[in-house]
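Q: I have 108 residues here and want to know how they pack in 3D. Can you give me a structure?
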Amino acid sequence: MIVKLIDVAKIIRSKNSGPYELTLDVIFKDWDMYDKVIKSKQFNKHLIAQLYGIDENDVLGIIEFLPAKAIKATIKRKIASGSIGETDVYGAQQHAPLLDIEFDLEDI
């Protein structure tokens, strides 16, 4: 079974985590899909690095937050918030690459 993240998530968002980092939040609609995505181990540093065109070392962490049915990924910003050339001071428009994620949950 292939599922699109946008279909199983209630909220997909991004925000600053200080001037040099972004946090990407995915909050799932239900426990079943949250559990399946977690068990699949497909939401990982490699995926985030590919989506954002960054080195895996720049994916600072991925946290599974059970009480909220959420996964949080923190990455280094390419340009610090508010710097010359930076286009999203609040980091609120950086979640778009997450919208195209698909997970293969066939064996989960």
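Q: Anything worth noting?
A: The first strand starts at residue 2 and ends at 4. The beta strands are 2-4, 9-16, 21-28, 59-65, 70-76, 102-104.
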